[in-house]
Amino acid sequence: MMARVPLPRGKGEPPLPATTIGNLDKPEPGDLAALNFKVPRAFRHEFRRFAANRDKKMNGILIAAFGALKSESAE
Asked: Which residues contact 33 (CB under 8 A, 6 or more apart)?
């Protein structure tokens, strides 16, 4: 038979600021963040080919396309 160990009550003391290692700092608006979504396999290959043929990064093309779409819909 196993001994019963009492469960701790409450959350305990908060960590010291020296041990939080920047987990409360807000990221800069220009920092990159992951954007994960699924697209059809054929679209992915065409998109990658489009970027490679123009020697551009895929995220740069996506950002430019979104900017063009936003400005088009604002008119």
From this structure: 27
